[in-house]
Amino acid sequence: MVEDEVWDVIIIGGGPAGSTTARYIAKNGHKVLVVDGRNPIGSPLQCGELVPTNDEMRRLCPNVPDMDDLFRTSDEAISRRTEEMHLVPPSGKSLKYKFEGLILNRVRHDEELVKLAKSYGAKYLLGKRVLEVEGEYVILKCGMKLRAKIIVGAGGHNDPLRKKFWSDKSLNIPVKFVLMDGIFSDSVELHFGSIAPGGYAWMFPKKNGANIGLGIQRSFSKGKSINDFTDEFVSNYKGNITFKGAGSLPMSGTINSFVNKNYLIVGDAAGMVLPSNGAGITIAMVGGRIAGQVISEHLSSGLPLIEYEIRWKHQMGKVMRNSKRAFKLGSIIFRLPDWMINILFNRFTKPFIWNAITCRSFFKLTKH
After folding, report:
1. What counts of helices (H) and strands (E) characterise the chain?
2. Helices marked H in the chain — which ranges?
3. In this predicted model, what pLDDT tens digit does every residue of 59-94 receive, in sequence order?
4. What is the predicted pLDDT for the residue at 324?
5. CA gap 184, 272 in Å, rounded
6. How many Å apart are CA 249 and CA 272, to the nearest integer?
């Protein structure tokens, strides 16, 4: 790799957002390089691994086109399929809903996205961390300087491009989880109340075990550490823990702007996580495709990069607004004592709770 080579695009971060952006740029014949400090990409695991099926995504995000082209999840990257979600209040009396989901082998999933981007001609530079961005240059910690016409930040909530050129603040929620061997139910579980203040706990069943963890808002935790909350919740399940992981999710929704001159941000760096349910993988890929397509059209025909924001708002604006409202309401409700949350989870409120979780209007009745 020649250091003085000029790339059309350099992308910082090769997760779902970065690799999807790279795929759609390379697909249209442009020179794109993805730089990531990890090698291989996808490790270590940092999330709960649940995504909706393509059919479920069509119901959740009806303005997003061509789901089957975007989400091409291989069978090897799917650990288990689920058809039901249980929302569990402190009483343990679940509200049950139909939900078509995939619990991924997330590491394998990210590796497949890298392969897909490479198949269209995208290049990757792994094991190299970005120190600084100056003008058209991406400066690596090893001293290497790389140059591009456009630079994309897809490095999560600590993305160096976002930190230097955007002043927006996001509410970052810490998450901790384990992978546990054992036999678990077929249904996805989300648990609410003092067990995970300001957030929720989860059990997502996998092929021979489960991904079990939680996220909290520290301001709700009364000084108790996330480690203690996690240990207490995980102790409700029986099995051999094979992995412990942690991460952070930006839960205040998308920031005001994704474009700053020849810089763009995408995925977690842009706040592309639905606050009401923590969904980030598929949402980041939606943003990545839009960014990749707009960048390609900009390079080919001069389309203004601001079109990225316009298309995002058309495809995801309503869903994100509904999710932000639901999160704000939830932040009020989940300050209540457990006995009051138990009362609020009932057969009369069941459809409204589901609308909030799935980012629909509270008062639009849906089948579940």
Report:
1. 10, 16
2. 16-26, 54-60, 67-70, 106-119, 160-165, 226-234, 281-301, 307-333, 338-344, 350-357
3. 999 999 999 999 999 999 999 999 999 999 999 999
4. 92
5. 30
6. 10
Residue type, 32: V
319, 294, 296: which is closest to 306 by C-alpha? 294
Which residue is associated with the tokens 């009806």? 62
Q: Are strands 78-88 and 123-126 parallel, antiparallel or unpaired?
A: unpaired
The CA-atom distances, in angstroms, between 279 and each of 57, 98, 358 are 11, 17, 10
**Contacts (Cβ under 8 Å, ≥6 apart) of 267:** 13, 15, 16, 17, 18, 154, 156, 280, 284, 287, 288
Pairing of strands 145-153, 263-265: parallel
- The count of other CB atoms within 10 Å of the CB of residue 218 is 16
For residue 323, CA distances in Å to 102, 274, 311, 318, 350 come to: 21, 6, 18, 9, 17
* Nearest residue to 287 via CA among 275, 274, 277: 274
* CA atoms in the 13 A half-sphere facing the CB of 98: 7
The one-letter amino acid code at 153 reads G
pTM: 0.94
d(CA 3, CA 30): 18
> 224-277 pLDDT, tens per residue?
999 999 999 999 999 999 999 998 888 889 999 999 999 999 999 999 999 988
- Tokens encoding 223: 């000084």
pLDDT, mean of residues 105-132: 96
